[in-house]
Design a protein that fits this description.
The chain is an alpha+beta fold. The chain is 17% helix and 40% strand. A two-stranded antiparallel ribbon has the order 1-2. β3 and β4 form a beta hairpin.
């Protein structure tokens, strides 16, 4: 949960989040050898529930 401090306009995490090694390894694997693309990490209630990897292949254009 994120609380907004109205005076400062700053967002703060309400609780510290622990990430287990299995999820950190999955994130590292998702970004490994990714030249072009995106990695989306979905978090619900402070817990990583899904990791999506979108890889793009780009081909050089000849002029």
């Amino acid at each position: 949960m994120i609380n907004k401090d109205k005076k400062e306009g700053v967002y703060r995490m309400a609780q510290s989040v622990k990430v287990d090694d299995k999820k950190l390894e999955a994130i590292a694997k998702a970004i490994q050898n990714l030249e072009f693309g995106e990695v989306h990490i979905t978090i619900q209630d402070g817990v990583i529930v899904q990791i999506n990897r979108l890889e793009k292949q780009r081909f050089p254009q000849k002029k």
